[in-house]
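Task card 7
Instruction: Convert sequence to structure tokens.
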Amino acid sequence: MLRQRLGVAHISTGDMLRERVASGDGLGHGAAALMKAGALVPDEMVNRMVEERIDQPDCSDGFILDGYPRTVEQAALLGELLEVRKIAASVMYLKVDYNVIVARLVGRRHCPKCGTLYHLPSVGAGASVVCTIDGTELVVRDDDREEVVRERLKAYERKTAPVLEFLRGKGYPVGELDGASGTPEEISDRIVSWMQRRRESNA
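Output:
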């Protein structure tokens, strides 16, 4: 929704890693075992992918980084990449209770053919768990299993939670929203409104 409304590229490091794993290239092979265990992929792997990605033509009008940076080290490198390219950045922090996160991810299903994501309650009780677009049977991604999700949350506390204060300390404007209150459309509206106010204040 944000990509369409803001007219910018969407960069998901998780999607990029899964594509590398599926392609079987060297980086993907090394990342696969870590992702299945819920561990964070090493910074150097992710940093290399992001640097290559933001230099693609579709990022020239801006981009949304989704799932990056996840460590202070990644945030520091990102700052260098943005400074060299003279790109201004804003940070949006979506706060969600851990129990809500676990319920959402454990209930998530993925279409291996077209990539569409579903949440089981949204499929409907008794409904066949197949993709409504192409009829492919939905699957649970390895990194959406409950034990993996909880390990990812532990990794978040250790390595990702400090990123927010690091970015604040570097002077990035940071917005905070309740990520569990409202529909995706309503949350999207709030994010776009916050960004518009930021632009107006800098005009």
